[in-house]
Amino acid sequence: MNIKRITALGLCLAMLLCACNGNNADDNTTTTPTPQSQQQGSESESQSETTTPTSEESENTSSDTSSSEEESVPPVTEPAGNVPDDYREYGENGILVVGRNGHYVGLSGCWGTLELCDSYTASLNKAAELLPDVNIYDMIAPTAVEFYLPDDVTGFTGSQKEKIDHVKSGLKNVTEIDAYGVLEQHQDEYIYSRTDHHWQPLGAYYAAKEFAQQSGTGDLFPALSKYEAVTKDGYVGSYYNYSKCECLKNDPEPFTLYISPNADALTTTYYDTSFQNGEQGHLFPYPDASGYYLSFLGTDICIAEIDTDCKNGRTLVICKESYGNALVPFLTSCYEKIYVTDMRYFDINLVDFCKEVGATDLLFACCTFTPAGGNGSYLEDIIK
After folding, report:
1. Please, how many CA atoms are within 13 Å of residue 337, restricted to the half-sphere of its CB?
2. Phi-psi bin for 343: left (phi > 0), alpha (psi -120 to 50), beta?
3. I need a surface site. Which of 53, 193, 238, 263 has the fewest CB within 10 A?
4. Number of H helices and number of E strands within the chain?
C-alpha cells in the first residue's frame, strides 16, 4: 500500500498527539498531582513497578559525571520479540506501525511549514528582547519517526532536521540546545516509547545533560548511575488509542522512570494556570500504571514551583508542552528553583512571570510538532 502525504487531518492529529499526555489505552484522563502527604507508600503499592537501586559497581570512581563509558549502554533494554522488521500496518488517524527489534513500533508523520517555524522563532526572539538579563534557550526534540522510519516507506513524514535548523538560523540572543544531535547519537538505545508519541525518560536525560552543559551547570549534573531507576511494565500509550492497531495493545513496553538523587530534598508546589491557589505536592506523583508519562508532574494544566537543595542562586523557568515534562527530574541538581509552565495552558504574561520569580534562565522545550505544526502560536499570546 502506498502511503499518501499526510494532509491537514494528519497535521491536526500531530498537534493533538502533542497536546495529550500519552496515557494508557484504557485511561484518557489527566491526573492531578497528589499532595505530598498522601504519597507515602505509593511506590510499594504498585505491583507493576520494579525499583533498581544504584549499583556501586556501575559507578565510575572518577568525579567526572559525564562518563561516556557509563552512558554507552542503556540502563534498560527490552528483550527481543518475534515481530519481523518488514512488518507494516496502517492504522487509523495516519498512524503507521512497523516492526523494529522484534517489536511493534507506532509512528506518526511530522510535516508542518517553515512559515510556522518563523512565527515560533519570532516569539523566542521577542522574549530575548524583553528579557535582556535572562539567559534564553531553545530545545526542539525530534520525534521517533525521524530516526525509525524504515527506508522503504516514503512520503510519510517531512524532515524535522530541516525545521529545527531553520528555527536555529533565525534565533537572536537565544542559545539553541542540540537535542537532535544528542538523540541521534543514542538512537539505538531505548530513548523513545514504542506505543506512545513521547520520548522515554532516558531520551530526556541525554537532552537535559546537553542543556546543563550549554547553560553552565554541567558540573552539577548527576551521572545516570546516581538516579534511582524504577521500571514499570505493561505500558500501552497514545498510539494504540489513535491507531486502534491491536498489535500495539498486545505488545506493551517497559517504562523506566528515573528518580532525582535529591528527590527527598525537593519541595514542589502546584498552582493554577494564573499562578494562584498553590498547593504542596510531589514531583513524582506516581499515578497508577495506566498513566506512566504522568509519573512526573502529573498534569500539564498547572504551574509547578520546585525548590531544590542546590544553592547557586539560579532560577530556571521552563516553558514547554508535554515533551518538556520529562526533562524536569534531571535538572533539580542544577538550579535553586525551577518553574514549569505549559505554553498551551498559561494564562498570564510569560515576560512578567519571569521577572516576578526572578528568572535567570528561560528554556523553551518542545518537540518538532510545536514550531512546525502551529502549537507555537500560543507563545504569541503570552510573550508581550
Report:
1. 12
2. alpha
3. 53
4. 13, 14
pLDDT number for residue 178: 98
State the Cα–Cα distance between residues 170 and 163, nearest whole angstrom: 11
Task: Give the length of the chain.
Answer: 384
- Per DSSP, the three-state class of 337 is strand
d(CA 365, CA 65): 23
**Residue 194 grid coordinates:** 514504542
Taking phi over 0 as left and psi of -120 to 50 as alpha, with beta for the rest, 106 belongs to beta
Task: Classify each residue of 142-152 as buried b or exposed e, where b means 16 or more C-beta atoms within 10 Å of its C-beta.
Answer: bbbbbbbbbee
Sole residue written with cell 510569560: 350
Query: Residue 71 has what pLDDT?
Result: 54
* Residue 336: DSSP 8-state: S
- Phi, psi dihedral angles at 100 (to 5 degrees): -155, 130
List pLDDT tens digits, range 227-280: 999 888 899 999 999 999 999 999 999 999 999 999 999 999 999 999 999 999
For the residues of 168-183, what is the DSSP string, one character each?
HHH-SS-EEE-HHHHH
Q: How far apart are CA 203 and CA 294, in angstroms?
A: 16
Q: Residue type at 281? A: G
Q: How far is CA 30 from CA 57, 251, 302, 348, in A?
A: 39, 24, 11, 22
Residue 156's identity, in one-letter code, is F
**Strand partners for 320:** 342, 365
Query: How confident is the model at residue 286, as a pLDDT?
Result: 65
Could you tell me if 300 and 321 are in contact, meaning their C-beta atoms sit under 8 angstroms apart? yes
The closest of 188, 193, 194, 189 to 248, measured between CA atoms, is: 194
How far is CA 379 from each of CA 233, 343, 353, 372, 382, rounded to the nearest angstrom? 36, 6, 14, 13, 5
Positions in the chain whose pLDDT score sits under 70:
1-76, 286-290
272/366 Cα distance (integer angstroms) = 21
- Spatial separation of the C-alpha atoms in residues 138 and 123, rounded to whole Å: 11
